[in-house]
Amino acid sequence: MHPRPHARWTGARALPTLRAMRHTAALVSLGIVLALPAARAQEAAAPGADPLAPFAKILGEVSCRSRAWDLLAELSDRIGGRLAGSPQGEAAVEWAERTMRDLRLANVGKEPFQFLAWKRDRWSATVVDEVGRVRPLSGVLLGHTPPSPLGGEVVAPVVDAGFGTPGELAKLGGAVKGAIVLEELGVPKDHRPMHRIEKRFHAVRAGAAALLTFPGEGAAGPVTGTCRMGRTSEIPAACLTREDGLYLRRLCKTPGPGGPPRVRIVSEAAAREATTSNVVGEIPGQTDGLVLVTAHLDSWDLAQGAGDNGSGVAAVLEAARAIRATGLRPRRTIRVVLFMAEELGLVGSTAYVKAHAADLDRIAAVVNSDMVGRPQGFAAHGRPQAVDFLRDLARSLKGLGLSEEVPTAIGLHSDHAPFVLAGVASIALRAPVSEAAGKAYHTAADTLEKVPAGDQHAAAAGIAALAWALADAETHPWRRQTPDEVRDMLEKEKLREELEAEEAWPFGTAGAAPARPAGEGGR
Q1: Crossing angle, helix 311-326 and helix 87-102, to 10 degrees?
Q2: Are strands 7-10 and 333-339 parallel, antiparallel or unpaired?
Q3: Would you say 335 and 290 are in contact if contact means Cβ atoms under 8 Å apart?
Q4: pLDDT at 34 over 60
Q5: Which terminus of the chain faces fewer neighbouring Cβ atoms within 10 Å, N or C?
Q6: Tens of pLDDT along 477-520?
Q7: Among candidates 304, 324, 292, 244, which has minimal Cα distance to 451?
Q8: Which ranges of 328-443 would DSSP assign to H, the alpha helix?
Q9: Given strand 153-160, what is the order of strands in its sheet?
Q10: Helix (H, G, I), strand (E, B), or coil: what is residue 249?
């Protein structure tokens, strides 16, 4: 481990360097002011003790000694893109375990699981006209595109399906069967969001031979991502540059004498069974209750994975370091979990939920951080009971400038989702990444310079405050949901169609709820 670069010794005193002063200024500029009457530190339990003491100590640690940026730089520059199953992915696992020990977390270790690893290899897409002339197209394969011979070579006409919604595919009728479907990322105005996995499902159901997507305005390049949850897709799928996507769209609108444009796709991606590990460390509490603070460690292989999700990893680790450094002991154990294989379909978090089924009733909440920047507020996925608790917390941390609005919409495409489906509360810090990092999402531009250092330190402060508030609260106004309650919540949010398309609906086709051990949860 390298010494912390933000301080040097002069005589018997430690004087902050310029970087440390910048760290402090980044948080001081937020004007951190605390007024949390519900807070309780172990040493502040006596009558008359200051209830704000633990927050002042924790946020002071982040302000003066934050390692968030240094951790992000180390992960991004020294390891870089870390697709699960790759050598870089395993290097990231070793780095995470070593770093947790260096940060003095307790019970540090790796939890192995098996999964289907995927590796992009050579591929090509070319337009072939009626006289045999070819024009190469530029883009990237989507994860879990099938390897040869399943993928092999596809030569077929292209049909433009707009954004690829079921309605747009239906308008094309039989033209989709055996064709290569072209779709723009995103959805039409006033349409609910659709993930690429759901779009692939509808294209397959309509009989498509392959899927080509292209990004909307503002993306930094072709956007990768998995096209099926944890398993090989039935058809090849790739994302083209926006320029080539629009080129194909024009050809579809004005077909030549030979009819619609034809494209040849050759895919040589590789898939294999492999083993990787989630990495776990703890800040021990005073009871058997748990709060999970999580982020996914893996990234796509096109770039450094700085925004997605080095930002979340570094902020979570710094939040844990700051709490641990104060010597405070919360009511509930804070368990830090860095998941692998999130990008291939939430595989690590799904494996964790399965392996720790006996612990789920003990978990008061999961705080998952996937692409984090400057804090704006809190969110409670499907848990309106948590709104007042989080609104009070935002009001108490008024110097952070947090909104008191607490959205309760349920997001499905990060590592909190398997916990939500298992009835565990998911509470999040709303902290969107910078505009540059957002545009670089899943592209070759996801590099370190897109993530402002000040945002990293601020995100770590927000995560630390939220984790402590959840871990040390005497009670919570929520509990673990029963399977029937989860099913009703998902159907009320109109998520069943999406989950079924992504092969993630947990209740069977008849909606029958699976049994689980009874328990109060939410302790």
Answers
A1: 20
A2: unpaired
A3: yes
A4: no
A5: N
A6: 999 999 999 999 999 999 999 999 999 999 976 433 443 333 33
A7: 304
A8: 347-355, 387-396, 417-421, 435-439
A9: 134-137, 123-128, 262-267, 153-160, 180-184, 210-214, 237-240, 139-141
A10: helix
Q: Helix and strand tally (H, E) in the chain?
A: 15, 17
Point out which residues pair with 273 in neighbouring strands. 116
pLDDT of residue 259: 85
SS3 420: helix
**Cα(151)–Cα(264) distance, integer angstroms:** 12
- Mark 22-57 as b/e (b = at least 16 C-beta within 10 Å): bbbebbeebebebebeebbbeeeeeeeeebbbbbbb
Distance in angstroms (rounded) separating the CA atoms of residues 503 and 493: 17
Contact 355, 111 (CB under 8 A): yes
**Per-residue pLDDT reduced to its tens digit, 235-270:** 999 999 999 999 999 999 988 777 899 999 999 899
Token digits of residue 348: 């690590």
Edge-first strand order for the sheet with 270-283 is: 106-119, 270-283, 333-339, 290-296, 363-368
Burial of residue 335 (CB within 10 Å: 0-12, 13-18, 19+) is buried
Residue 179, helix vs strand vs coil: coil
Q: Of 438, 427, 409, which Cα lies nearest the Cα of 463?
A: 427
CA 321 to chain centroid, in Å, comes to 21
Judging by beta carbons within 10 Å of its beta carbon (0-12, 13-18, 19+), is residue 256 exposed, middle or buried?
A: exposed
Structure-token match 């545009």, residue found: 439
Q: Which residues contact 142 (CB under 8 A, 6 or more apart)?
A: 196, 200, 211, 213, 224, 225, 226, 227, 233, 237, 238, 239
Tell me the C-alpha distance between 76 and 80, whole Å. 4
- Are 163 and 191 contacting, i.e. CB atoms less than 8 angstroms apart? yes
Q: Which of 90, 497, 78 is nearest to 304 (CA)?
A: 78
State the Cα–Cα distance between residues 142 and 204, nearest whole angstrom: 15
3-state SS class at 82? coil
